[in-house]
Amino acid sequence: MPKAHILNSFPRFFTTSCVLKHENPLGLPRKSGTPPQIPRRAGPVQRRPIPNVKKVIAVASGKGGVGKSTIAVNLAFALGLLRSNSASQSPTARLRVGILDLDIFGPSIPTLMGLRQSLEPELTASGAIRPLTNHGVPCMSMGFLLPRSPDSNSNEDTPVVWRGLMVQKAVQQLLFDVDWTGGAGGSGLDILVIDMPPGTGDVPLTLGQLVQVDGAVIVSTPQDVALSDVRKGIAMFKKVSVPITGLVLNQSNFICPTCATSHSLFGPPDAFRATAKSLELNVLAELPLVPGVSISSDEGRPVMLCQQDSTTEKGKIQWRAGMTHAAQVVWDKVSSP
Ligand SMILES: Nc1ncnc2c1ncn2[C@@H]1O[C@H](COP(=O)(O)OP(=O)(O)OP(=O)(O)O)[C@@H](O)[C@H]1O
Ligand SMILES: [Mg+2]
To answer: Which CATH topology does 53-149+158-335 take?
Structure first.
């Protein structure tokens, strides 16, 4: 699809937009004040907090398809089950969590959160995008902003055909122009979980340069090829001074539902553990391959939500226990002074 066509397909936003389109790829109304700028080479870094968000955690990996989005969503729900230790809130209050999908070219959050068929987000009076909420968790994704095909009334096959600068600007707008307050008078989020795209390109660099990120959770699978990309991802985050909170090994094993034997389908976890040790990084969880994880993800029901299931499936139990532990360590780390 030609670029101009994509750009002209955000009519609801473009009515008030008069800035250059590559400066405003989401076509948001112009706001007063200076937008944060991507630093020029060797220029000063201008990191800002995300408005109405206390802590930011990125879920990333140098490698595609290792389970970043699945883990980001379930980490968000596992965090949402933790109690807030804020003095200003009731001791029984849970953490307020949101999810931001920064995978501009391949957003998964609309599917994983059961928001594929939702209406497009609204703008607030000040021109910020209102997140969409399901299962009590607000989320924002490029997938909510893509135009729908008139035939299918779906945007799932709509590609984003943008060059680097457009992507940087779209990321910038998703970072700073989303209203996470949760409505009038809302108090914002305790923690925002960001689902990162694969690789070490524009998006993680833009995030690291513009935002104060409190930690990164790096996901890998046991294979050597994944571990090599993971090391590159870690090096990139270190370059932009994002602290690595820890590593998650996904699909570490498969527990046979019939005989309950554990099989290392993709090889033993030894190389992963050795990598974590040599980099002096925490292992937050080793999660099994569980068919139910994939099925409930496709249905938009994160496995962490199915906590009350009477399932005795060992894999799911191990998965939830791993995510719960990872969430507790992440929160302890990012919230410690
Ligand atoms: N532990 C698991 N058990 C079963 N299926 C899993 C597990 N982890 C991930 N999957 C499945 O693997 C597929 C890829 O997962 P996911 O989309 O989360 O990966 P990703 O790293 O975000 O991919 P991308 O790099 O394309 O963004 C999905 O179908 C997901 O349901
Ligand atoms: Mg993904």
So the answer is: Rossmann fold (3.40.50)
